[in-house]
Amino acid sequence: MIKIKKQHEIEKMRAAGLIIGLLWKEMEKLVVPGVSTWELDKFADEFIRSHDAYPAFKGYTVPNLAPFPGAICASVNSVIVHGIPSKNVILKEGDIIGVDVGTRKAGYHGDAAYTFTVGEISQETQRLLDVTQEALEIAINTAIVGNRIGDISYAIGKFVKQNGYFCADDLTGHGIGRDLHEDPMIPNVGRKGTGSLIKEGMTIAIEPMVNVGTNKVIERGWEYLVKDGSLSAHFEHTILVTDGKPEILTKVGRENG
Asked: What is the 3-state secondary structure (H, E, C) of 48-114?
């Protein structure tokens, strides 16, 4: 069931989302050659807790897997999502790392992802990041009252395909609020005019995950990898559907999208 948020719930989600926006500004300084994904995770954990919130991913459970051990998902290069932070994963010049983070504050959640660059990257890699980020922007601007969830999915999939890339199979965005994952699921490929009607007060996390070489994925425990080993990028925001332009809840200053 899709939950329409009341004003007091929205305020709590703004507070949870703002922490992520602040974290991105600090994280950008730390993503450098030689740092481990474990160090990034430790920083994020402490940062979130210092803002009277809890890292929502830590201890998260799904059937048949041990609880997720990190405060962040740290997904390097061909890891699409859910990369487990590790002292053994050391970032090097030219890498990209998708950092996905969830926060819980006063019982409500924020969720966002950003793909950081490590030192200098190639023009080809930068183009992947640009296309993925633009796909997210297009999707956010499609999340308006009267459209349907399938319109968001279609907008992402069409733009990604037009640019010669692939949306990762079976990985989706989602509703969010008191629970980290709520209805509706938001695929990155879909058909116009299908799915649930978008209504004012909905809060959703939209997250294109875009691969260079193939849509096919490999599951390795928590982690999803591109089957052909090519690069993948991931950007995500939690947004609020309003009576006008959607509001991005996971940006510093809560700028509208």
From this structure: HHHCCCEECCCCCCCCCCCCCCCCEEEEECCEEECCCCCCCCECCCCCEEEEEEEEEECCEEEEEEE
- Find the radius of gyration of the CA atoms of the chain: 17
What is the SS3 assignment for 236?
strand
Tokens in use for 247? 């509001």
Q: Which residue has the tokens 């009576």?
A: 243
Distance CA 81, CA 57 (A): 13
Residue 186 and residue 196 in contact, taking contact as beta carbons nearer than 8 Å: no
| Residues 142/151, Cβ–Cβ less than 8 Å | yes
Give pLDDT tens digits for 236-257: 999 999 999 999 999 864 343 4
**Angle of helix 123-142 versus helix 149-162 axis, rounded to 10:** 160
- Tell whether 171 is covered by a domain: yes
Instruction: Count structural domains, the chain.
Output: 1
Query: Is there a domain that residue 1 lies in?
Result: no
Q: What is the CATH number of the domain that holds 209?
A: 3.90.230.10
Q: What is the pTM of this model?
A: 0.96
Cβ contacts of residue 174 below 8 Å, gap of 6+?
A: 181, 182, 183, 184, 185, 186, 204, 205
- Domain extent, residue 72, equals 7-254
